[in-house]
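Protein in question passed on here:
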Amino acid sequence: MLFSLSVGSASLSLMDVWAVLRGEGDALSQTLVLELRVPRTLAAFATGGLLAVAGALMQVLLRNPLADPYVLGLSGGASVGALVAMLAGMGGMVISGSAFAGALASTLLVFGLAHGTGSWTPSRLLLTGVVVASGWGAVITLMLAISPAERLPGMLYWLMGDLSYARTPWPPIALLAIVCVLVMPLGRSLNVLARGPLQAAALGVAVRPLEWTIYISASLLTAMAVTTAGSIGFVGLVVPHMLRLVVGNDQRLVLPACALAGGTLLVLADTLARTLIAPEQLPVGVITALLGVPTFLYLLYRSR
């Protein structure tokens, strides 16, 4: 995070950054660090932590190593909500609110369809989410096709993940802290649930309330992350796998490690996105893919 605060179109030394954080330094440095870089860096760290923890929870809930935060169509619903607000010419807060509302609507839609007249199962929930996500993708393509040309760049950048307008980092940070406090003590139960619902129930775990807790928590984490920074891929899928290769499959270690490693990865990716071809900026989702995929493949090769 200190590296992110010091690097940019106007570089600062670590001593300059430390002086600003202590309330010293010149006015230009204070404006640059406190008003521009600190909010964006905190938002990047919080968003990366939200996505990584949500991905780890979804992989436990669905008992599928390929599950990620977007597998249930939350990103598609949020994207449709945000694009509708952009087409209407709304500002940043309205776009964020529309994205959050779209993500929650997609959550309710997927769960309602998967539940049907009986009880939902992980496979049924996964299939329903994939189908709903495909439907949202078709709606997004249609909206991009009929949108005015002057609005397309902003819409495409939001869909690829963009932290340029992340100026309110405290809501995602607060949600990450709250969910970590509530969910991480359940690490022992999550370890048992990963072995299957029947074995978990036989060992005294309340399976259905625990699955509800995981689903609601992962949905809120993903909705807040997408609302803050748009659709950023690979973080929620790659980071939990990377950490399991390093620290094992104990959720008591994986979940807090995901919060730290996911945030670190996205801060690094955002720093590269705004400095590689400065003053132009790249979509941060492109950088996460370029960083995460080779690293994950290397670790997978080493652990064979």
Summary: The first helix runs from residue 2 to 6. The chain has one domain: 2-302. The chain has a mean pLDDT of 84. The radius of gyration is 20 Å.
